[in-house]
Amino acid sequence: MRSFLVAAVLAVAGSGSFAIAPDISPRPEARIPGLVEVSVEARVSNVAFERWISEFRRRAVAQGIRPQVFDQAFQSVRYDTDVIQRDRNQAEFTKQIWEYLESAVSDTRVKNGKAALRDHKRTLAAIEARYGVEAEVVVAIWGLESAYGSFRGNTPIISALATLAFDGRRGRFFEEQLIAALRIVQSGDVRPDRMTGSWAGAMGHTQFIPTSYLAYAQDFDGDGRRDIWSDDPTDALASTAAYLARFGWTKGQPWGIEVRLPRGFDYSQSGERIKKSVGEWMAAGVRDAAGNRIPEHGRASILLPAGAQGAAFMIFDNFHVIERYNTADAYVIGVGHLSDRIGGGRPIQANWPVDDRALRFSEKQEMQRRLTGAGFDTQGVDGIIGPNTIQAIRRFQRSVGMIPDGYASYEILRRLR
Ligand code: CA
Prior knowledge:
9 strands; 4-stranded antiparallel beta sheet
């Protein structure tokens, strides 16, 4: 749903750990010492902010926003220092996938998901029939995005986006979102004062940013408005299903299946880049977590989100459809596994390498520097564990006799030091 970063979970593909934006971070935010400076900054900014609004008004009108719509929407807009603080405080906070799943697929969230599935049974069945997306999957996204509507965010969206667009860091992106938000107001779908959401502009039960809303939001209850903000989640849930359908959801195909890999499995075959039929994987000895054969569901990859020591999943095209919501492997597995559990499925069977600690951003950079220095070129030092770094890790692992799973563990860094 989000193009980047505005998501609660930030992708660092293949690393097994990922950053979480501070709005759901458990870190205490002690800000008292900075309070005076902040208010000075806010006063200074307000003058420039007002000037920016009048310039932006011209750009918005040039893009088709009616002046009276703009003025009404901006009536109570203010520079939101809290939004800026949250944006600036996105210092990386990393969790390992098992820590994330503990909260993403907690017993409470599973229980509440089952209740949500029951409470909205008829609506969800109608949505499933229209868009071809299973009710459990829609409910799982709802569960992760807003705890089934409990945390939809109460930040005024126009103020938040105006602040972020003015601030300039990723200003173009946020100005585009702000224009989209004004189009939503202009369409009459929602009054600007009811348009609330997260500090970064994600709105409603399933946290659509304005451009996604414009492209995919649905009026499923037929009252003439695409209302993702109201207590009634009908439109929001239909919008989510429409979004997944648009990106190619295949009904009846699992997102993924936990699998058991045979002794002697060729770990160079793991990773999203290698796809084979279920039959080919089974010929290589892959079975489901209970040791049974796996039905044919299309081409699949073997994903090891915590390396060879953790759970293994056979993932299908639907995995990549959920990625359109949020690209972090952990998020996709969270949605997928939560949907399985809501549908009565079993917990993940494998153990996780729980003694493994997540690498900090600086340590990922250090790992890349050291790998490259040792002759395993990572094609750059950006702190993001992408395909080139995974490849370099595999080569390093082979050179020292480790299992070449490409997993960026602390152990690799320790050995490189
Ligand atoms: Ca509606």
